[in-house]
């Protein structure tokens, strides 16, 4: 990855809150146009990292670099509920000193892009949860950022609406925007991300393409439920998994054979540790 092709760079970043180490010597780079996801349990350091990169939290030690303007979609819906959709976007444009003509043009473009044109004069209070999330994304894109930070963009939404927002996110990436995504929905990162970094206790414990991380663990998983709980075993191929399945089947245990998912990787790397909120 050449220096000119880097959209975000983090070098030896450490952040402490008293005795708590929220980020511990974290380093990675994200190339222009990449969709990069941060995964990990609560307290792993994901939101702390986004807050540092967007200037909302002081970084501690280390270096950070964001190439160009950025937009932020926060976890909380921080829209003005008493204003209309258009008014929320208009105020955002004024805060970025955009010309009025440009604000109107981009507003019309983004409302169409986010499928909100018919709701332009509705107050935020009248919108559904999914519409509010799409409006947050439209607002973050209004000033034409090169980098977009998405911090839990689909939290609390039903699967159908989440997938609608996934489609919007991929369209944004295909337009050339670099995206850094944090999410608790691991299937979201598996579907969307070019690469993922798995954080635990403020450290990166794995970083690669989802497919590569899953292949390292195995191709098939066998879930075995006994009187002590659930155990999962991983195998390089289906034949090996089926042979093991026969052994456990003779014991009358409950068995499920399935493909390995990115969630398996995250659980394998982080479940043995107890996280703290950061």
How do the helices and strands line up, and which of them pair or pack?
Layout: E1 6-17, E2 20-31, E3 35-39, H1 46-53, E4 61-66, E5 70-73, H2 85-95, H3 100-113, H4 129-141, E6 147-151, H5 159-174, E7 178-182, H6 186-192, E8 195-200, E9 203-208, H7 210-217, E10 220-226, E11 229-235, H8 238-249, E12 254-259, H9 262-270
Parallel strand pairs: 3-7, 3-8, 5-6, 6-7
Antiparallel strand pairs: 1-2, 1-4, 8-9, 10-11, 10-12
Helix pairs in contact: 2-3, 3-4
Task: Walk me through what this model shows.
The chain is of the alpha/beta class. Helices cover 35% and strands 29% of the residues. The strands form three sheets. A six-stranded mixed sheet has the order 5-6-7-3-8-9, with helices on both faces. A three-stranded antiparallel sheet has the order 2-1-4, with helices on one face. Strands 11-10-12 form a three-stranded antiparallel sheet, covered by helices on one side. It is globular and about 70 Å long.
């Amino acid at each position: 990855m050449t220096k000119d092709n880097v959209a975000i760079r983090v070098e030896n970043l450490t952040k402490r809150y008293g005795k708590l180490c929220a980020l511990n010597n974290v380093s990675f780079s994200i190339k222009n146009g990449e969709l990069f996801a941060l995964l990990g349990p609560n307290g792993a350091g994901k939101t702390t990292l986004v807050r540092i990169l967007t200037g909302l939290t002081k970084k501690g030690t280390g270096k950070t670099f964001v190439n160009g303007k950025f937009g932020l979609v926060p976890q909380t819906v921080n829209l003005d509920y008493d204003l209309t959709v258009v008014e929320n976007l208009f105020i955002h444009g004024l805060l970025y000193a955009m010309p009025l003509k440009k604000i109107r043009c981009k507003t019309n473009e983004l409302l169409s892009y986010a499928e909100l044109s018919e709701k332009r004069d509705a107050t935020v209070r009248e919108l559904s949860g999914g519409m509010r999330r799409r409006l947050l994304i439209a607002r973050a894109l209004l000033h034409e950022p090169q980098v977009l930070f998405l911090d839990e963009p689909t939290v609390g939404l039903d699967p159908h609406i989440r997938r609608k927002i996934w489609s919007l996110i991929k369209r944004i990436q295909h337009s050339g925007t670099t995206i850094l995504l944090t999410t608790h929905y691991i299937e979201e990162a598996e579907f969307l991300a070019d690469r993922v970094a798995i954080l635990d206790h403020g450290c990166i414990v794995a970083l690669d393409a989802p497919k590569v991380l899953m292949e390292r663990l195995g191709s098939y998983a066998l879930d075995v439920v006994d009187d002590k709980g659930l155990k999962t075993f991983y195998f390089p191929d289906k034949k090996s998994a089926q042979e093991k399945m026969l052994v456990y089947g003779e014991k009358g245990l409950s068995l499920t054979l399935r493909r390995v998912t990115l969630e398996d990787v995250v659980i394998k790397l982080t479940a043995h540790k107890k996280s703290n909120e950061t």
